[in-house]
Amino acid sequence: MDSKVIIERPVEEVFGFVVDPSNIPSIDPSVQSVEKSSEGALDAGTTFRMRRKAPLLGKAREASMRCTAVEPNRRIELEAITGPITPAASLTFERADGGTRVRFRGEQNQVEPLKVLSPLSTRQEQNMWDKRLARLKSTLEAPQGH
Prior knowledge:
Helix content: 10-25%
Number of domains: 1
CATH topology: Alpha-D-Glucose-1,6-Bisphosphate, Chain A, domain 4
Order of helices and strands: EHHEEEEEEH
């Protein structure tokens, strides 16, 4: 999966918004809650618990996430455990056209029995990330700000 957007805001503002767990529901309405489950500042090893409504079933599901790398204002890498899927993702932030280019890249890393469904679920996740980045852009570029 690979999604990109340019947001007309400084890198520091965009990165700061993205790393605040309380902002996640504004870019992904399926997320019901996100709790940091480790101590200290955001860094490699930081863990979170996220509760979200499953897109197909409508039931609430929990996922554990862990930051595997963090470079302030440049990059966040994450891995998650959500049922039989262990997705890995990165978000990068760079100055572009007077704003910030945000790029999401991810892999689902499904277990063997589910790999047959991988193309379908990858398309669905790609679509969700395109929408998340569009919401991030509209939220941060809104006249009233965030």
